[in-house]
Amino acid sequence: MTYFLVIPSSLPSVYITSCGYGRRGRSRGRSSRSCDGRASSSDDTQRRRVGTEAEKKAISLLSKLRNELQTDKPFLPLTDNCLDADIWNKYLEYHHTLLNENNKKISWFQSPWLYVECYMYRRIHEALVLSSPISYFDVFKESKERNFFESQEAIKTLCSYLQDLKKRIENLDEKQLKDEFLKLFQIVLWGNKCDLALSPNQSIPQTSSPLAVLEDLKPYILVNNLDYLWSLLISRKKMRQETFSITRVDFIMDNAGFELVTDLVMADFLLASKLATEIHFHGKSIPWFVSDTNKNDIYWLIEQLKAANTKCMSECGINWEYYLKHSWIYQDHMFWTLPHEYCTMSQVATDLYAELEKSNLILFKGDLNYRKLVGDRKWDFTVPFHQALNGFHPAPLCSIRTLKTEVQVGLAPGQGEEITDTDPQWMTTGKYGIFQFDGAL
Ligand SMILES: O=P(O)(O)OC[C@@]1(O)O[C@H](CO)[C@@H](O)[C@@H]1O
Ligand SMILES: [Mn+2]
């Protein structure tokens, strides 16, 4: 069963596919419980019935959501009693007070786009949560998996490159190491083209060799602060040889599938090169913006790699599974799936802010993170990134993002206008990218 939530204007479309509960035609007639405790067919029938009811409920809630959206109804408070529901509901009240007009309501076409989009994904989650026993079914799982399978060739190339690089890494001089660092970071950047929120029914797989195209893509990097990242990490590495300190790098992850592979390759490289000693990954705790990574996506990906019949891929899978058990730290926090701008993190999620303060470098992946970093405002292109962060400075940070929405700061005078002349769609196609750094070196 495929349920299509048609969403007008600039909002993304969402496919909800059957969750597999209550499928017809699996059980054949009556039978009693077997002596090994397996369920009887009447148990099966009961389970299918419950599953079908749950599916129907989820679909009706999603239909209702679609209708509210299409007819620009006021936003409704969440009713699912999840831990974050109160925060969402308070945020809604706060936005109502901002409107400052008694008869105006926060609604789909009248409210800030960042808020509207986040609210839509949270309401999709609510529809599932309220439909037990499929409450924690990931409606985007299928699209995420498709992106992974369609990017097999590129993933193989990357895994092979990494395995080979790790064999020679001890013998690289500083310049050679820097070259590898720059190369892998560019792969991480262009991996962000692969999100599914813009076209959920159409996976944009990475088909060509990601390494072969890097030179051709260089002109599309509008802000390139990779040298700052290199200076920061290499000077800490040198310092560590005299003092016993750590270098912690945090990935605020974005999309699963190919982009996730690029993140894991980067993390592996940073540790192997001793440019970092500690890696933290921050994922989403609910299905989010179609392709965003949650814990299951990482473990699913690792299982796929382990089972691959290409040695370099299975080696990566085995290594990454080991690192996730022993040295890489995966964490999620509800703040990442709230609509809040990051400048509010120190008040709204004090614990997360304190955690990020321990980092030596935070990598914010993707377009949505950028919008939340700079508050999704219509900034002048030349406003400094530091200023647009509006007080959000937990540690040195870098946004690694391909441009998919109309917000960009920190450009040189005239740079934005010049690109607009030649390529009017430059802010929304994912063709351009940035490495934008903020922090003391
Ligand atoms: O954060 P990502 O994965 O790079 O991009 C997510 C995204 O494509 O989804 C939304 C589309 O409506 C926009 O916020 C953004 O462009
Ligand atoms: Mn995303």
From TrEMBL:
Name the chemical reaction catalysed here: beta-D-fructose 1-phosphate + H2O = D-fructose + phosphate; beta-D-fructose 6-phosphate = dihydroxyacetone + D-glyceraldehyde 3-phosphate; L-glutamyl-[protein] + S-adenosyl-L-methionine = [protein]-L-glutamate 5-O-methyl ester + S-adenosyl-L-homocysteine
State which residue ranges cross the membrane: none
Residue limits of the Damage-control phosphatase ARMT1-like metal-binding domain? 46-418
Record SUPFAM superfamilies: AF1104-like (SSF111321)
Coiled-coil blocks? none
One Pfam family here: ARMT1-like_dom
Q: Which GO terms describe its cellular component?
A: nucleus
One GO BP on record is: DNA damage response
Mind listing the GO molecular function terms for this protein?
Answer: metal ion binding; phosphatase activity; protein carboxyl O-methyltransferase activity
- Comp. bias regions, Low complexity: 32-43
The record, for Gene3D superfamilies, names: 1.20.930.60, Uncharacterised protein PF01937, DUF89, domain 3
Which intervals of the chain are annotated as region Disordered?
22-52
Q: Does the record carry Transferase as a key word? A: yes
What is the role of this chain?
Metal-dependent phosphatase that shows phosphatase activity against several substrates, including fructose-1-phosphate and fructose-6-phosphate. Its preference for fructose-1-phosphate, a strong glycating agent that causes DNA damage rather than a canonical yeast metabolite, suggests a damage-control function in hexose phosphate metabolism. Has also been shown to have O-methyltransferase activity that methylates glutamate residues of target proteins to form gamma-glutamyl methyl ester residues. Possibly methylates PCNA, suggesting it is involved in the DNA damage response.
Q: What is this protein called?
A: Sugar phosphate phosphatase
Q: Which source organism does the UniProt entry give?
A: Sarcophilus harrisii
